[in-house]
């Protein structure tokens, strides 16, 4: 019997883990496919929850899926590492040496993985557009490590604020879903925290949301933007549109009109670009934002053995927004068609996006959604609740897809029960 086809999936996020799990259950189980998932982290989280981890309103011990154990139960291998190079002629990828941050100690040397096919699913980061001072003075929320670091600093700042009676100032750049949801979630954290009344007075928390464009949530219809803007202001969150940031220093943001917004916490949640490594991968074609350019079949334009999906990819002449919905559907497309491509050399058909609309939730305060035909829903006590539940349902659907129905339902139940025994915001 010939050796099984070696498929390497790089990136275990929403798209990569869904693909590895689905293929593991089919070709992986039968031994026809040798699947390796590579990730620079040890566990998977649902990225649209990062702002809840940052605010401490969700606990990620419950929400992480550990790659090693998930792989063992789903007929694929996990390889911890960060891709740093690609040799297409010899079909080999390079993983960067693993070096300890504090003392430069090399834990693992550079390693190599041979492949017959690759699927890249390495996601994206916020884009600083070269704005001076952003990298040095802003916090990013692009992965669970950054979200947890933010939360640790946030809790320290709250402790100081309670102890000294001084305000906490936070400014967030980017009025897309990430910035808007983070602003509301931070407000919710402070509101819940104040219920524990460990000092008589709740400190002031000043949150400013800065958006360069004319309105927040630009990918949503105008009525949703206007309603969300109003809701944020009702929560005492200052929303400034048309506010173009031209620089950042250790005490705040400088705007293009010459004014300043000073803040102890400066969060950059604007723009999207692919991880820098994409440009170093043996001449694969990239967009200006570093995303791999792919054909409608999701194969890269220069090498049919290499696919890319999710935020790190852009379909030639028909780019789609970098959302969880697109990432999942692309993973499902490849899970369905890669087996015939691998076993029978059948071409992978063109991916078609089935737009099911979008939802944005402002913590437990309100939520809105939009249907594919542009009609909107949500807002207010009942409809806001339906939109918020819809937002949660997307996460539960993802959990059930990865865990399977029985374990997925147990995970939902255990999260619900957890709510009865633990504080609803992280305090330790
Ligand atoms: C705070 C926040 C809120 C959001 N809210 C929403 C929302 O409400 N709705 C929505 O549709 N979308 C939302 N998004 C966007 C959504 O999360 C992304 O579109 C989605 O996660 C993309 O999935 P992906 O699989 O392409 O990448 P990701 O889920 O980002 O996964 C990428 C994976 O690749 C790994 N990786 C990266 N670089 C390397 C490397 N060099 N080597 C090895 N591994 C690597 C990472 O560790 C990660 O596991 C939100 C994003 C953020 C940050």
Automatic annotation (TrEMBL):
Domain FAD/NAD(P)-binding: 6-331
Protein name: NADH dehydrogenase
Keywords: FAD, Flavoprotein, Oxidoreductase
GO biological process: aerobic electron transport chain
A Pfam cross-reference name: Pyr_redox_2
Domain of life, per lineage: Bacteria
Gene3D superfamilies, per database record: 3.50.50.100
Family: Belongs to the NADH dehydrogenase family.
Gene name, Swiss-Prot/TrEMBL: ndh
Cofactor section: FAD
Listed GO MF terms: NAD(P)H dehydrogenase (quinone) activity
């Amino acid at each position: 019997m010939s050796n099984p086809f070696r498929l390497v999936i790089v990136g275990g996020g929403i798209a990569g883990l869904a693909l590895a799990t689905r293929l593991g259950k089919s070709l992986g189980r039968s031994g026809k496919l040798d699947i390796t998932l590579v990730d620079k982290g040890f566990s998977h989280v649902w990225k649209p929850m990062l702002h809840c981890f940052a605010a401490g309103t969700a606990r990620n011990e419950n929400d992480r899926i550990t790659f090693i154990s998930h792989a063992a139960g789903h007929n694929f291998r996990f390889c911890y590492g960060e891709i740093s190079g690609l040799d297409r002629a010899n079909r080999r990828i390079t993983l960067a040496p693993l070096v300890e941050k504090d003392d430069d100690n090399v834990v693992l040397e550079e390693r190599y993985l041979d492949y017959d096919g690759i699927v890249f699913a390495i996601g994206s980061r916020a884009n600083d557009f070269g704005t001076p001072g952003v990298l040095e003075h802003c916090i990013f929320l692009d992965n669970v490590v950054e979200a947890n670091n933010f939360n640790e600093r946030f809790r320290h700042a709250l402790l100081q604020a309670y102890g000294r009676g001084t305000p906490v100032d936070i400014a967030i750049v980017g009025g897309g879903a990430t910035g808007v949801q983070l602003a509301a979630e931070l407000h919710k954290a402070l509101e819940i925290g104040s219920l524990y009344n460990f000092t008589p007075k709740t400190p002031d928390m000043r949150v400013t949301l800065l958006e360069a464009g004319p309105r927040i949530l630009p990918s949503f219809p105008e009525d949703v933007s206007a309603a969300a803007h109003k809701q944020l202001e009702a929560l005492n969150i200052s929303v400034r549109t048309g506010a173009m940031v031209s620089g950042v220093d250790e005490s705040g943001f400088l705007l293009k009109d010459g004014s300043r917004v000073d803040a102890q916490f400066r969060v950059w949640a604007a723009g999207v670009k692919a991880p820098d490594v994409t440009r170093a991968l043996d001449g694969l074609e990239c967009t200006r934002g570093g995303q791999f350019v792919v054909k409608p079949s999701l194969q890269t334009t220069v090498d049919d053995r290499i696919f890319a999906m999710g935020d790190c990819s852009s379909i030639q002449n028909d780019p789609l927004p970098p959302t969880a919905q697109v990432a999942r559907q692309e993973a499902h497309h490849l899970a369905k068609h890669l087996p015939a491509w691998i076993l029978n050399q059948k071409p992978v058909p063109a991916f078609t996006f089935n737009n099911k609309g979008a939802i944005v939730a402002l913590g437990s305060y309100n939520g809105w959604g939009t249907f594919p035909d542009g009609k909107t829903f949500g807002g207010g006590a009942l409809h806001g609740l339906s939109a918020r539940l819809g937002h949660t349902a997307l996460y539960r659907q993802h959990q059930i897809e990865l865990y399977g129905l029985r374990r997925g339902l147990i995970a939902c139940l255990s999260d619900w029960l957890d709510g009865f025994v633990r504080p609803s915001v992280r305090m330790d």
